Amino acid sequence: MIALTGSQIRADLLAFAIMSNHLHLIIQGTVTTAQMLFDSLLRKTARYYSARDNAKEIASVTCGYTEITSLRQFENEVVYVIRNPFVVNDSVHLFAYPWCSGYLYFNPLPDMINSTPAHSVSYRDRRLYFKASKVEVPAYFRFLDGRVLPESFVNIRLVEKLFGNARNFLFCALKNVEAQAELALSYKENPHLSDDELFLQSRQICRDKYRSDSPQNLNDSQKKELAILLKNRYAASNKQISRLCGLPLSITNELFPLSSPS
């Protein structure tokens, strides 16, 4: 649906991630273009659910926009989108989730996939794939297992050009955790950092603030300060804070009584 709708309104899609209850899209264009894309997607989704007597499923759907105004912000936003499935589900591979564009960039393998060109897909199959009675499919679409391959409709080359090279892309995706945490909190979402990611951040804080190599070398007062920083900067859970700071869980729960200890 995203592929077809984007082509119909000529929205240049740069990155996307489809989750169980929301989706993220980055497009090149104006707010008007983004609103047209959202409105069209919403109408098509509404028709789909109404035909199945589930119209209430989309009654509360809303859309938010963020304008990207710098190259650094662009890099962070793209990485935030493609990391989204990975950070909320530890069984998802960062560069192998099929409902996300993360695997497309700086990767020669998608071009090797034996897919079906649009002109070889029957009219009946087009109707089946897009759940619509009348479907005009762009000639550049390629299909595999009943879906349009993302490499058909994502502007991969523009994203690669803006990142510059694979090394910078991988650094932003795997190492720039602080930027991702800040972005998640700005969207009022949990960064969902792993213990390993939080440990690296806590060690950096210890070096910068306490001239120490490990949280375990801090005194009790410093450990509590570190705990507050980890909570405020990265929305760490109470159990994570206890493990990383070496504080009893009872003390952590006293520091953050309104937070879930899980």
Describe this structure in words.
The chain has helices at 2-9, 31-50, 71-88, 123-130, 156-163, 166-174, 177-186, 195-210, 220-234, 238-245, 249-255; strands at residues 12-18, 23-28, 116-117, 142-144, 147-148. By secondary structure, it is mainly alpha-helical. The strands form two sheets. The chain has a three-stranded antiparallel β-sheet, with no helix packed on it. The protein has a two-stranded antiparallel ribbon with strand order 1-2. The model has no long low-confidence stretch (mean pLDDT 85).
Q: What is the number of strand segments? A: 5
Question: Termini separation (Å)?
Answer: 37 Å
What is the helix/strand order? HEEHHEHEEHHHHHHH
Helices, by number, come to 11
Q: Largest sheet at a glance?
A: 3 strands, antiparallel
Mean pLDDT: 85
Q: Structurally, how many domains make up the residues?
A: 2
Outline type: elongated
Look at the helices and sheets and give the structural class: mainly alpha
Q: Provide the β-strand percentage band.
A: 5-15%
The whole-angstrom Rg is 22 Å
Helix content: 40-55%
The low-confidence runs, each spanning 5 or more residues with pLDDT under 50, are: none
- The side-by-side strand order for the widest beta sheet comes to 3-4-5
